[in-house]
Amino acid sequence: MSVALRTAGLGKHFGGIRAVNAVSLDFMQGERHAIIGPNGAGKTTLINLLTGVLRPSEGDVFLGEERITRLRPDQRVKRGLARTFQINNLFPELSVLQSVLLPICERRGVATNPWRHLDACSEEIALAREILATLHLSHIEGELVRELAYGQQRLVEIALALACKPSILLLDEPAAGVPRSESEALFRAIAGLPGGVTVLFIEHDMDLVFRFAQRITVLVAGAILTAGTPQEIASDANVKRVYLGNAP
Predict the structure, then answer these.
(1) Strand partners, 215
(2) Given pLDDT bands bounded at 50, 70 and 90, which one contains residue 198?
């Protein structure tokens, strides 16, 4: 199994505060990798560094063998790195199908042609429907996004990310704000994504983390406390102390 994404000594500080401190991680192709840790551990900052939203204070990010540390977010997306956010970024007045169709047309270079007839978009529409089927959203393709339940909106946001055809998908708290009755279905859909797509996700619901992650990294105060399989993390005494609030 090859390394899909890695960091080397990655760090970010804001004045005297080190939000991410010397993080070196490998994310393997096709794995489901969870980042966990207390509030303020630097999890979202790490995602922002990986996706180019923030520039690192030190260290590097590699996509495969390519150093992408200085690339803009849109350049990283074109190389296969896509993400979602803690708060939905959607098109509320569009239908589900229309929403997913937009990034597909943009990726294929046909979004800028206002005179292109809908009949000429049949291939893009088929691709959009394939993505919706993957996430079990086909039955609501005609509904307006603003009328969907929040859990379904989170899935639509993942569909938008998949429309960019990523090799690596980063999910920042995908179950945040989603009722527990819907979060299970959301993570089942995530687990069913194509095996070649590497999925890196931040999540606070430990039940979901331990059920769906193949590997877990624990961040504390911007640094890696430990990393391992769910079984290794569950039995780690240091992790238990951190989540009991007794860490020094």
Answers:
(1) 33
(2) very high
| Token digits of residue 203 | 């999540």
- Specify the residue for token string 């609501």: 140
Which phi and psi angles does 218 have, rounded to 5°?
A: -105, 120
Confidence grade of residue 188 (pLDDT, cut at 50, 70, 90): confident
Q: Which domains does the chain have, with CATH numbers?
A: 3-244 (3.40.50.300)
Mark 6-31 as b/e (b = at least 16 C-beta within 10 Å).
bbbebbbeeeeebbbbebebbbebbb
Retrieve residue 13's tokens: 């500080």
In the numeric block, which tokens belong to residue 17?
């505060």
For residue 42 the two structure tokens come to 């630097």
> CA-CA distance, 184 to 143, in Å (whole number)?
22
Q: Quick check: helix, strand or coil at residue 95?
A: strand
Rounded to an integer, what is the distance from CA 114 to the centroid of its chain?
31
**The pLDDT of residue 107 is above 60:** yes
The single-letter DSSP state of residue 57 is S
Q: Are 140 and 21 in contact (CB under 8 A)?
A: no
